[in-house]
Amino acid sequence: MSSGNEAALDSTKINSPTAENVTACSNTPAATNKRFIGWCIYLAILCVAFAPPLRQLVTYARHSDVHSYVLLIPFVTAYLIYIRWRDLSGELSTAGGFALLLAAAGAGALFANQHLHELGPNDHMTLVSFSFVCFAIAGVFLFLGRKWARSAMFPLFFLVFMIPLPAAAVDFLENASKEASAEVANWLFLVSGTPFLRAKTFFQLPGITIEVAKECSGIRSSLVLVITSLLAANMFLRTTWRRALLVCAV
């Protein structure tokens, strides 16, 4: 009798659904396809829901002196995911905690955008874009899980550049770059022996007065260089220190 009970127990253990079996079942081709289809439907609904502010973002970026690059970011992200598709994790799951946290951040940004009327157009675009990116990445955690998100970390991180910088950050960077340019000009005049008088960012030379204006800051080209260096480092370099060296050199 005891041997019969032991055999029955062994049979129950073999047939009982373990965590490994559940995971394997949840990653069958049919289940995987359902998750990816659900993710695509989620993204489509998200784009429809954000259609009006996204159109405003496109118009704003086209006429912006600083943020015209944001129009390319979603396409670059999609391309990065496409070329790395086979290398991305096949273990799909639902990371509800991360999804909820990102969705809460996106909802908070939308709430702030609706109620902070004193903000300028640039800051409104910042909040709306931040909300869209949060909801988009939340969908990744909801439908595909943490392991897939980790394997696609750089393409998802790259979406952050779709968010325009706040006006205060742009002003700070422009002023810092302008001051740095003025210091370089001051040093060049001293080295060359050119007689001049300086008042902050104004330089009075014999017969001419020069101002180092915000337009000389080159903030857009600097941002594009940083973004390009990050992309190139991730695509073509394999070690972290080489990637960091390239970005710092730029």
List the helices and strands and how they pair.
Elements: H1 2-15, H2 19-26, H3 29-49, H4 51-62, H5 73-83, H6 96-115, H7 121-143, H8 145-151, H9 153-158, H10 167-192, E1 197-199, E2 202-205, E3 208-211, H11 219-236, H12 240-249
Antiparallel strand pairs: 1-2, 2-3
Description:
There is one protein chain. 70% of the residues lie in helices and 4% in strands. The protein has 250 residues and is mostly helical. The chain has three domains: 36-164, no CATH class; 171-214, no CATH class; 218-250. A three-stranded antiparallel sheet has the order 1-2-3, with no helix packed on it. A hairpin with a 2-residue loop joins strand 1 and strand 2 (202-205). Mean pLDDT is 84; it is low at 11-25.
The spatial strand order of the largest sheet comes to 1-2-3
Overall pLDDT, averaged? 84
Task: Using the alpha-carbon principal axes, give the shape.
Answer: elongated
Regions with little confidence, pLDDT below 50 for 5+ residues:
11-25
User: Please, how many domains?
Assistant: 3
Rg (C-alpha, Å): 26 Å
Number of strands: 3
Structural class: mainly alpha
Helix content: over 70%
Number of helices: 12
Beta-strand percent range: under 5%
- The helix-strand sequence is HHHHHHHHHHEEEHH
Question: How many strands, which pairing sense, and closed or not: the largest β-sheet?
Answer: 3 strands, antiparallel
Distance between the termini: 78 Å
